[in-house]
Amino acid sequence: MGGLLTEVGRKLAEKWVTLLALPGALYLAVATAAVSLGHTHPFDLSRTADRITAWADRSAAAGGGGQVVLLLAVLAAAAMAGLAAQALGSLLERLWLAADWPAWPRPARTLAARRTARRRRAWIAAARTWHRRRDDDIRSLASGNRADPAARHAAERAMTRIAVEEPTRPTWSGDRLNAAAVRIERDQGLDLAATWPHLWLALPDGPRGEVTAARQALTRATTLAAWALLYLPLTLRWWPAALVACVLALTARARTHAAVDAYALLLEAATRLHARDLAGHLGLDATVPLTLDAADTVTRYLTPTAPPPPDGSDD
Hints:
membrane, transmembrane, transmembrane helix, Vegetative cell wall protein gp1
């Protein structure tokens, strides 16, 4: 038992250092450079070293006890900065996925609706082009001539750059995640929102670990975007911080797209592979591929019933 607690403590310490302390310490270092250098001496590192030395030589931090207190204060500040980045990252994730955008307050809801409509119009035009190219290739193949698929592939890429399925959300990431639910319902008749929590409990350790890793990658990507926003105020004091913010923002955008795509693929794959196992847990016939009738039964069984109507009496 003691060994297990030691291992758990070590894992927690590693995560604390990786997720909070190190990024927070880097942020404090850049903030220190911003305060000590300013716009007039943006790269004079000796100026920063002199300022830090002067702070460390003050009487409050001159002794051993003062240095320990100073070190603890720095670690605490780094951890607080890390917690702030994680909280802001959660907010950014909610905005990027935009699952509840119709409930957003005005004017955010109005802007989201306009962007969704604009994305839907662009997607419909691109989808029509792709279907036309695909139908032309099918007719060419039926006549004995294999057409060059480059035009069809280019049309498909143009469509998927907007969204994989018809857009219903203002962001690509939100539509990519929603596309998994759309495909599962269209192909298998399952409501992913109602099915997934129960399917998650029935997944083997391997697929569950893959889905968890993909979800954690998405969280790290949105937290990286939050760090980019936290670096922006430092640009008011030190302009090179803008370069750091831009690099972090571009990296976060690329990582978020990749993480959302991987997460959506794994959600869809896990559901397709293990929906029959879930049906078996519910007592349905799991020896044959899951039929649409069985999928409808699973969805109805797992969907909570609506609350009964009130009796009409007032308290």
